[in-house]
Amino acid sequence: MNYQPPKSKVLLDWVNVSYRSAALTVFAVLLLAGIAGGVYWRYFAGSGPRSEAQEAIQRATTKLAEASAVARDARLEQLTATAAVALDEARKEFEGGRFDVSRVAAIRSENLSQKALDIARGQGSGSPEVRFYRIEGDVRVKRAGEFAWEPADRKQVLRLGDQVKTAASASVQLIYFDGTVTTVQPGSLLEIRDLSENPATKVRKVSEKLNWGEITASTQRRNVEGSFHAVETDAATARTAESGELRVAYDKETKAAVFDVFSGRVEVAGADRSEVVTAGERMQAASGTGLSAKEVLPGVPRLIAPSDQRVFVYQNPAESNTALQWEKVPGAARYRLVISDRVLFARLLYDAEREDTSVTIAGIAAGSYFWKVSAVSPSGVRGPFSEPRSFRVSSHKLRDREDTTPPKLEISDFVQTGPMLIINGRTEPGALLWVDSEKVDVYEDGSFYAVIRLRKEGVNELRLLAQDPAGNESTLIHRAYVETY
Questions:
Q1: 3 state DSSP class of 366
Q2: Taking a C-beta distance cutoff of 8 angstroms, is the pair 60, 106 a contact?
Q3: Which of 21, 93, 251, 318 gets the highest tally of CB atoms within 10 A of its CB?
């Protein structure tokens, strides 16, 4: 039987809307957006994240039961009550298919329960911990005071003095008790230098030392005055008490460190002075010479195509082409594109700098892939990576060859308030949906709700793309005219 390729349907709609809005209306729109949230089961949620979240919930449940049995005073009851709230959050996120978020909440619950147990056993304020969030490749752990390196395990608890080492094609994410998530890049060695919380003042002090390699840390706002999270190197130390994200790299051969701040504010202390580095800035330091002048980081490229979690269905993937595209960043000389089959990019299948803003990949094998792009300035300064996107390449043999009908795609209602456009519509239940290349949740009945910020004055063209499990697609172009007064 001759195969008929999936059909695609394109609809076109035009609307003129004046740009008149008040702040109260915008707030009302945002409030409605929050109320309209519902349960969405992610199409791409694999058995890995699901099972990891299940195991974390089970451990948290067991730990909470143990802690509740010994909670005989107000403080312990408060800790177990907070742990119960976090565990309930983990279960709700699991039911909604948000397995990564569920696992983080479960780990937070387990840490709170363990803290209650430690206090009940006479261990003061408990033992602050670091836990593994995600492990990719060969990651090793050396305990404080020991000489042997052991393979890292998700269930391990790291404490003061422990070291974590990643191989050349390995990466790991750590969750600190202060809420910081640190991603250790390939070929790095990280040591936990300080983990403490004062039982009276609640001041938390967390410090990690990068002996060599690169890390990215997403920090949380301090709980009380005096709390901080620090990343040390032999050249300088970065310290922050704010919510933000920073990248730290240290070369053990040149003894030079680089501190890139993507969001928030970070104080970098070198041998000669201290400087406050804010979002979009870089500070370099070298042992013995102190800090350099601050530099400006390039902006973050916006990924255009393919849409996040897009599925490409090819009759023969080895003979097909897949195109990636992103927006130009003002002032950027070139772009670094990385592609991996692992979510932490521990193993890179493609890593190159390009002057153009697109690439066509020939003959990519069937499978799931992740990609991200960063801008590089004329002087070679690399900016922050974009948020990664994923796509899947599949063979027709894995699809329903009888289904050649494109999914329905329609807008039932739209409201524009200022630069915000609210769209209500419906597609086929189980279909994937993107609006302007951004993933949108589709509810069980096929309905969807999206709040889109229009990018410019004049004509804004939004492209809605729906894709059913058989690979059939429908596209709807919605245009809104923004008029200013």
A1: coil
A2: yes
A3: 93
Query: Could you report the per-residue pLDDT of 179-217, keeping only the tens digit for each?
Result: 888 999 999 999 999 888 887 888 889 999 999 999 999
3-state helix, strand, coil in the chain (%, to 5): 20, 45, 40
Alpha helices in 355-475 (DSSP H): none
Which H helix or E strand runs over 43?
A: none
The crossing angle, in degrees rounded to 10, of helices 74-95 and 47-70 is 160
Q: From CA 476, how far away is CA 467, in angstroms rounded?
A: 12
Both 353 and 276 in a single domain? no
Rounded CA-CA distance 469/398 in Å is 10
Cβ neighbour number for residue 249 with a 10 Å cutoff? 20
Per-residue pLDDT tens over the stretch 78-136:
889 988 998 999 999 898 888 878 887 888 788 888 878 878 776 544 457 788 888 99
The verdict on 149 and 292 lying in the same domain is yes
Q: Rounded to an integer, what distance in angstroms lies between the CA atom of residue 164 and that of residue 422?
A: 46
Do residues 344 and 197 share a domain? no
Q: What is the mean pLDDT of residues 277-289?
A: 91
Beta carbons of 472 and 406 less than 8 angstroms apart: yes
| Nearest-10 Cα torsion for 337, 343, 349, 355 | 0
User: What type of residue is 7?
Assistant: K
Distance CA(95)–CA(102), nearest Å, equals 9
* Domain closes at, from 242, 262, 296: 296
